[in-house]
Amino acid sequence: MADRLDAILADGVPRVCSAAVALIAVDGAVAAASTAGELVRYTDAGGTLAERRPPARRDSIFDLASVSKLFTTAVVLSLAEEGRLDLDAPVAGPLGLAGPRGATGPLGAGGPLGAGEPPGAADPRVTARRLLTHTAGLPPTRRIDLELPGAGPEERMAAMLRTPVTGPVGGPYLYSDVGMVMAGRLAEVAGGAPLDELVRLRVTGPLGLAGTGYRPRDVARAAATEWLPERPGPGCVRGEVHDETAYALGGVAGHAGLFAPADDLLAFGEALRLGGGPVLRPQTVAEMTRDQGAEGAAFRHGLGVRIGDPAIVGPLSGAWGHSGFTGTSLVVDPARRLTVVLLTNAVHPVRGRDGIRGLRHAVAEEALRLAS
Q1: Among 5, 88, 221, 260, which is most exposed with the fewest C-beta within 10 angstroms?
Q2: What is the per-residue pLDDT across 3-40, written as a single tens digit (0 to 9) for each?
Q3: Residues facing residue 330 across a β-bridge
């Protein structure tokens, strides 16, 4: 059953990426699995071949990039279930950005918003729901590493929370890593622990996802990403987050930073497909995957999740999930009883390589065939 999937990955490696792992589960059972390529193929942006090129394996770990947003969302929603945060309340108070000038907020850095400072998350219209639906009017990204080159993660986080609102609050949809950074910080305040610990306690621990986490220790299992000359060390980035903002925030952020093997991501998707247990309640997953009415996107949007995103679902109309800039994706199709995982390092050795959309579609087409 894996022959067709093998051929799909063979067509994409190394043309699209140097390494790829794909899993297709039907009714919870893996119907096809395939692995192709090398975890490290290049040593620089010019495509110089590495002397040692370890093969990709099914248990190799990949930088999930924005697929991390699904884990942040699960943490936020689990806290909302417990009444620790309100999805529709202003986030300014919990984030320490509201109140009289001079008061001390829970950030421990910067205090509340002062007169003349940009509103950012202190805008009372910014809520967790709007952060998770990308309708808070926040910009797509912010290179806080370039703005504050000598600062530490806490100072940079405080500045991130003050990122000005630049678009209409409430819509239209504007994809924002900044908003998901704020969502991750909101989870930390509400949950009383760092985000990586919350993800472990509330998601990966209950699901037994031992290979999933931030800042992986077993670098030898990691697929390399881009050659970034500003990073310390020789060669391409490997075993540390590719995303510049997440890296500047210490490797743990609400929008990026998680690494995982394919089977762990499959188990996470299956848990959501089956109603969320033991992480979330079925009614919470139903709300997470409900069209929240965000306008202006090429797809519908739930809470932290894209519904019918043409870039990743291919023929699986109505399926939901998320993609990652590094070349990763998770697609869940409850109607067809499908969970589809594709992990690649399509930014190795440089970003902007062609073909990842086609590879995602080909895997989705094979999933549809297996479910028929």
Answers
A1: 88
A2: 999 999 999 999 999 999 999 999 999 999 999 999 99
A3: 322, 341
Q: Cα–chain-centroid distance for residue 29?
A: 24
Residue entry with tokens 């990652």 = 324
Tell me how far apart the alpha carbons of residues 6 and 19 are, in angstroms, rounded to a whole number.
Answer: 13
- Is residue 124 within 8 A of residue 137, CB to CB? The reply is no
Whether 93 contacts 104, CB under 8 Å = no
How many Å apart are CA 196 and CA 56, to the nearest integer?
A: 26
CB 164 within 8 Å of CB 119: yes
Query: CA Rg, the chain, in Å?
Result: 20
Q: If residue 30 lies in a helix (H) or strand (E), which one and from where to where?
A: strand 29-37
Confidence tier at 98 by pLDDT (50, 70, 90): low
Q: Do the strands 19-26 and 338-344 form a parallel or antiparallel pair, or are they unpaired?
A: antiparallel
Contacts with 319 (C-beta within 8 Å, 6 or more apart), sequence order: 307, 308, 313, 331, 332, 333, 336, 338, 364
The model's confidence at residue 96, banded by pLDDT at 50, 70 and 90, is confident
Closest CA to 327 of 67, 27, 9, 83: 67
Q: What is the pLDDT of residues 262-287, one digit of tens each?
A: 999 999 999 999 999 999 999 999 99
Q: Which residues of 258-287 are buried (b: 16+ CB within 10 A; e: fewer)?
A: bbbbbbbbbbbbbbbbeebeebbeeebbeb
Cβ–Cβ < 8 Å for 360, 314 = yes
CB atoms within 10 A of CB 371: 18
- Cα–Cα distance between 51 and 42 in angstroms, integer? 9
d(CA 269, CA 340): 8
Other residues' Cβ atoms within 10 Å of the Cβ of residue 2: 16
Q: Any idea of the CA torsion for 79, 241, 298, 289, to the nearest 10 degrees?
A: -20
Question: What would the pLDDT profile of 174-186 be if each residue is shown by its tens digit?
Answer: 999 999 999 999 9
Angstrom CA distances, 160 to 119, 142, 144, 205, stand at: 11, 8, 7, 29
